[in-house]
Fold these 3 entries.
Entry 1:
Amino acid sequence: MCRLLGFVSTEEKSLVEAAGKEFTEFAALSSRHGDGWGIATCNVQEHVDLLVEPTRAKDSKAFDKASHELKSNGALLHLRWATGGLAINEGNTHPFAYRDFSFTHNGALIPPDAVDAFIEPKYAVLRRGQTDSESYFYLIITEIEKFGVERGILSAINIIRKNCVYSSINGMFLTPTEFFVINEHNDERIPQGELPGYYDLFYRTDGAEVLVASSGWTQTGWQELPNHSLMKVNRTNLEINISNLND
């Protein structure tokens, strides 16, 4: 299981600048979610840059430097808590990227290969690790090729909902023009020892930035993103649209 954070803004900024003074609280969540960290940045109309390290974020000099100095107008941050049996290595560390797309996931598909049969073989061979999260990502890429970005994401979600058991398929998907947040989870499958609301996602916006993140740190004044929903943010004007996945 993992912690997610993503933002898009009208100006380039670091993760620390985007998240504000409470960012240290978010980084501290790596005490439990300490099996790797990763950052994907993608400026408007540019390509993805990816930085991952299979170590605990709060103890990493590279993480500290990147979170303060790596600037962009769109980024994803992932703190990994490895699903049981999956290796802690660079290949299994989020985010995952393909061309202009990057993706992070919090949750587990049961079994881990539950969607592999739905992935186009030419994408399956691009995998750099063994996680169900990367399978989820390439399922989305497969469906995007058929239907375009938004419809492709929705198609992938529907395939998982119809064919898989899962704790959560919460995810963040960043493109050069849009930022998507998937909130689809099962509160009956919260990890042992975690509080209710573990899978909840919250967001805030001030007209110049949209920031979305997992729970577990100070989020005073943030809005809760409903479960079973898809958020889409237009990176040109930061317009937010939230649709119900059950409609």
Entry 2:
Amino acid sequence: MDRPVAPALRALLEGLIDYAGTFPPAALPCGAAAENFATYRAGPRAWALRYLVVSAVDLDRVSPAFNGALSVLAETDVPRAAALESKRVVTAPRPVYCEVPLADLDAVRAAGCFAKVRTGGLKPEAIPSVAAVADFIRACADRGLPFKATAGLHHPVRAEYALTYEPNAPRAVMHGFLNVFVAAARAWHGDCNLEPILAETDPTAFRFDDRAHWRDRALSTEQVRAARADFAHAFGSCSFDEPIADLEQLGLL
């Protein structure tokens, strides 16, 4: 039997992962990614899953059964989508996550869109620094601007990992999704000192019961839930299994 999930951890993880199996490093065929998504939606960890992320060019390969559960990379509106992801500000009658420089966040907010940050990549130099991620989170919190993250958050806690699934893949220190989303939740409730949370490499520094603890700082379940709903929406990952398996290995799930 699965162990009970601590209330604050459930609040942090619920609907957190957008499954992006067609994108590197997994780079699965669209049909295989859609089949995986259907399996995850029917599985015991479905509560941690949000959308299936696909490119607009792949939409014809995606069953209409997934309409309303898609986050689509597109520069114009897509009626089938629950959300859009774009490299520029796009006006649409649904949430749009805009991956733009910090200097353009005011334009994102003015358009009623959301922000998007890239937290990793296939090469070490694609991984932003702790300071850069902290600056992004603070900039969004200062503006009351919700965001999602993408790339490089396969693992709960910051550590060195292989960047792809290939033999002899390059390795680098990757950001952890617990680091990023605990830091974001704290930022939403007024904490500006985010770098130590983002830089944390000790999994035992994160504890969950009816509060979400990082070392001597804590937020209530209600505070975490509010931060997720109003600010730190999700992260895109080409793997759903990997984040879940790591949480299980840490004894959190």
Entry 3:
Amino acid sequence: MSSGNTSKYLKYAIGEILLVMIGILLALQVNNWNENRKERNQENAILTQLQAEFKSNLSQLDDKIKSKKESIKSALRLFTYVDYPEMRIKDSVDFYLGRTIPYTTFDPIINDLASSGELRLISNNSLKRKLSRWTSEIADLREDELQWKDYRDNKYVPFLIEYYQLRTVRKLANESNVLGKYLIEDDPTTVMNSEIGESVHQHDFNDLLNHPDFEDHLERCLTKNRHSLNQSLILRKRVVELLNTLNAEIDQ
């Protein structure tokens, strides 16, 4: 500087500063790239996990839908026996009675991404909205299912106990594995107890079918299960939509 080379020194200093800034910007760029890559890897892992979970949820939901359809079909068949006494056959009455008693609840895998903070990693906004609605939609269905469970436990089953013998009904239900086929695993070594035999007490199914309250209980069975079936079918559409979106995102 003392020799009059000020401009050359300033150019050199500015060059050094620019090099440092470029280095910092490149380092930031590389860091951002690494962070984005990590987040995309995390997102793909989350999407793959969600895909497996919703496939499992769909399989379980389909089983519960089948169970509800059986209850509805059985209630309608028993209505026919109420209205047309000449069609009544004891084994058939017992068979369909056993299929009005069960209740099923949909208990899916729930991955609460919002509370864990992982929802932000999902880049598809449409998928985010669908996932954020998932918990509330399950709650709506479960509320309907539990209403039938409560009615069944507190009114329908006590009525059947008072006016019929459930031992024979349960025997037929166990023999046809009406509940076993909805176990969480399809295990052939698991069998329902079908050795309880028939009741030794006299029981006339005509007394049950002719009782004025019986058709009211059937109406509750039909209405409650039909409503939760409709909710289940709506929820099934949601699951299929989610799976289609997840599949598309994973295949990208």
